[in-house]
Design brief:
The protein is an alpha/beta fold and 274 residues long. The chain has 8 helices and 7 strands. The chain binds nicotinamide-adenine-dinucleotide (NAD).
């Protein structure tokens, strides 16, 4: 081992300085947490997702100023294959390369299988699964040419285990793990890794909304909803944070993770250990 490569934290330069990343679905929640974590390590970042144009512009500006990196935005709809490919081409044109691709955009719908709307099934498969395929397909040629790339797919504990009423989501997340393994094998000799991160419950605005709604609907204190309803399956009885997911993605992009590929890392407080 080259002992010189181990430096004290204070002397270390930012791990992703000079690299460029796309994070899909990064206008909110986990994606934004990942984008922040990558920017903090010096990566230029392309944000993507829906939202208020002024809010997105403010987020872009704040990230660029705080971390001294380039930040741009694509409004590509991840349910549209041609827009996914165009997003990758635009990022390559703006930054010169896409070194890190984080496929994070995702939606959810909860309903019994016999009532599950076919349109929702199609949308969830398109956004949570097929968009990753289309983005990887578009980004891989450049990564191969440069001999370096990091692909991180945000799956879920539901990539490993199921819950009732989430047929499309669970199917898509299981499939994302399969896709991750195939891509890892195909790129194993090209300096490109492909891994999945599998969060349990993560505290995002989306989840906060659910807590308030359920507390009101059941007339139960908020803490009890969190513990007995939402975190029933999560042994550590707390949400992961978007910062913890961001840190996991940064680790997967670091030199120390160069031989981790085809893996899924559970960030779920022990949920899938049971
Ligand atoms: P969120 O709703 O806060 O964010 C989703 C992001 O995806 C937003 O930026 C949204 O604009 C974007 N998006 C939605 N549809 C899109 C489309 N068609 N095209 C482009 N962007 C689109 O959700 P989140 O909780 O941050 O979830 C992010 C990812 O993490 C998802 O893949 C989700 O399945 C996964 N995940 C979340 C949790 C959790 O507890 N929050 C747990 C496990 C996995």
């Amino acid at each position: 081992m080259n002992m010189q490569s181990i430096q004290p934290a204070t002397a270390r330069s930012r791990a992703l300085a000079g690299r460029s990343a796309i994070v899909t679905g990064s206008t909110s929640g986990i994606g934004l947490g990942i984008a922040r974590a990558l920017a903090a390590e010096g990566a230029s970042v392309m944000l993507n997702g829906f939202g208020d144009a002024d809010d997105i512009a403010r987020t872009r500006g704040a990230l660029a100023e705080e971390f001294g990196v380039r930040v741009c935005y694509s409004d590509a709809d991840m349910s549209k294959p041609e827009q996914v490919a165009a997003m990758v081409r635009t990022a390559e044109a703006k930054f010169g390369s896409v070194d890190v691709l984080v496929n994070n955009a995702g939606i959810q719908h909860v309903a019994p299988i016999e009532e599950f709307p076919a349109g929702k099934w199609d949308a969830i498969l398109a956004i949570n699964l097929s968009s990753a395929f289309h983005a990887i397909r578009a980004a891989v040629p450049g990564m191969k040419t440069r001999g370096w790339g990091r692909i991180v797919n945000v799956a879920s504990a539901h990539g490993h285990v199921a819950s009732p009423f989430k047929s499309a989501y669970v199917a898509a997340k299981h499939a994302v793990l399969g896709l991750t393994k195939v891509v890892a094998l195909e790129l194993a000799e090209h300096g490109v890794t492909a891994n999945a991160v599998c969060p349990g419950y993560v505290w995002t605005p989306l989840v906060e909304k659910q807590i308030e709604e359920q507390a009101r609907a059941h007339n139960i204190p908020r803490d009890q909803i969190v513990r007995d309803v939402l975190l029933k399956k999560q042994p550590n009885k707390r949400f992961s944070t978007v910062e913890e997911i961001g840190a996991t993605v940064v680790f997967l992009c670091s030199a120390g993770a160069a031989t981790i590929t085809g893996a899924s890392i559970n960030v779920d407080g022990g949920w899938t250990a049971e």
